[in-house]
Amino acid sequence: MSTAPVALTTQQRSVVLVTPDADLRQRLTDRLCSMRWNVFTAAGGAEAMAYLSNSAPEAMIVDHWLPDLDAAEFKDYASAMCPETDLLQMDGSASAGCVRSARRNELLHAIREVHDAGEATSVPSALPLKFDGPTWLQAPIAIPPLEPVPKVADSAAFGLPFLIPQNDVVQEHRNGTRPLSGPVEVRMNLPEIVGDAQQMRELARVIRLIAPHNVSVLIKGETGTGKELVAKAVHRLSARAGKPFVVLNCAAIPEHLLEAELFGHTRGAFTGAVASRIGRIEAAHGGTLFLDEIGEMPLPLQAKMLRFLENGEIQKVGENDAVRVDVRIVAATHQPLEQNTANKLFRLDLYHRLAVFPVDVPALRERAEDIPMLAEHFLRRLGEAAPRRSMTPEALGALMAYHWPGNVRELGHVLQRGVILCGEDAVLPEHLRMRDPQSTSWLSPG
Ligand SMILES: Nc1ncnc2c1ncn2[C@@H]1O[C@H](COP(=O)(O)OP(=O)(O)OP(=O)(O)O)[C@@H](O)[C@H]1O
Q1: Which residues, including other chains, have CB under 8 Å from residue 70's CB and lie 6 or more apart?
Q2: Which of 48, 292, 413, 434 would be 42's cystine partner, CB 3.0–4.6 Å?
Q3: Is the pLDDT of residue 179 over 80?
Q4: Measuring from each residue's beta carbon to the nearest atom of ligand 1, which residues come in under 6 Å?
Q5: Cα 334 to ligand 1 centre (Å)
Q6: Quick one: pLDDT at residue 232?
């Protein structure tokens, strides 16, 4: 499966404001709105990237420090994603090589006014307003008073060796330019991943943080928990969003064909290879390859995969020359891969290479509080094709009481059956048929 690049039209009078400083964000937003700008605010780079994957603003104002991404790296991503967007730094200077919005002066006025209004209470800054326009902009920008820097929530819960700038970066701000103030409000939910349980909010936060980094991700979780949705979200929130998202389920392809499927093959490379074909890795060039059920990959192929991850080169089956490809690997497994490495079923070196960022997706029974929201989501979706059905509290109670071995996928199927069985009524407990995984019979709470 691949995603065609999307050409976005630049939205006039829309500006994205990216700063972790809640107070500055609010003041600048108020000013820009009063000047008839549509303002989208983001507390960090990942949140802004999510917005940019669907919209191209006329301009963007970016702080010189972001809590989740290196600001310079973020600006590179942003200009690659939205080449028609005028990129301004918070000090009023423009990023090198960016287009110039016809209304850049309006934005600079707003920055300056907010600066002036905040000056009385602020600490003078060494940060100059570099701008090749009117001289009134050649003053230092307002600096909010120094406040304790909010600590980004502990990532150790997810076992992630995050590259989150913390104390050392804070120190740099204390010594140098503008300090942080106000809470870091990174919006948590992702539209495609339904769930508001604490684990899901944490999952969404982790996805936003890791997506922009060009590293491999290993998604772990039981079947039907939404691992593919997570992989898609990582892709969508990355700078690769406009490039292909290719899926390969390692368990779905016979072992002897998997290598050719991954790396491609030349004509006549093996019986049945009537024409040369590119593999999924090459098809994902520039984008992301999602390797589902990576635990099923045979050991000899694991060695080849490792080589690709190390040197970025692939060799088609039957071909001597290697070609370079630029692909981000996101893998998923429901198996205990770490355990499998101990049993020599999975290569330890490949495991470490893939699990730069391990992400755990919780089972549905561990977050039963999300079941009403998910049920609502599925009933709404099912209602797009047929009249929408409601559900009685008793039916919802039955859903809450079940242990969901097939997780969210199973919930979707149970509701699909329920909607069919209930005819024109509301879904009742007797319409809910859960499958007993230990037998071939159906469980019905009714
Ligand atoms: N949080 C969620 N919100 C909405 N839909 C979800 C969620 N989690 C899973 N789903 C839906 O459940 C189904 C299964 O999800 P998905 O294929 O991503 O699971 P998976 O973990 O990759 O499963 P498997 O391990 O069997 O491949 C899909 O239809 C998906 O849209």
Answers
A1: none
A2: 48
A3: no
A4: 193-195, 221, 223-229, 292, 332, 334, 377, 408-409, 412
A5: 13
A6: 95
Instruction: Provide CATH 1.10.8.60 ranges for the chain.
Output: 364-443
Q: Whose CA is closest to atom 25 on ligand 1? A: 223
Closest CA to 331 of 300, 307, 352: 352
Going by CA atoms, what residue is nearest to atom 13 of ligand 1? 409
ipTM more than 0.90?
yes
**In this predicted model, which residue has the larger pLDDT, 78 or 288?**
288
- If you classify domain 10-148+160-175 with CATH, what class do you get? alpha beta
Q: Where in the chain is the domain with CATH 3.40.50.2300?
A: 10-148+160-175
Rounded to whole angstroms, the Cα distance separating 42 from 71 reads 13
pLDDT in tens, 392-401: 999 999 999 9
Name the amino acid, one letter, at 64.
Answer: H
Ligand 1 pocket test: pick from 408, 411, 414 the residue with the most ligand atoms within 8 Å of its Cβ.
408
User: pLDDT for 272-327, tens place per residue?
Assistant: 888 889 999 999 999 999 999 999 999 999 999 999 999 999 999 988 888 999 99
How many Å lie between the centroid of ligand 1 and the Cα of residue 246? 17
27, 19 contact by CB (below 8 A): no
Residue nearest to atom 15 of ligand 1 (CA): 226
Q: What is the pTM of this model?
A: 0.62
Q: Among all chains, which residue has been given the structure tokens 């070609």?
A: 323
Which regions of the chain carry the CATH code 3.40.50.300?
208-360
CATH number listed for the domain at residues 208-360: 3.40.50.300
CATH 1.10.1060.10 fits 364-443, yes or no: no
Atom number in ligand 1 closest to CA 230? 18
pLDDT tops 70 at residue 202: yes
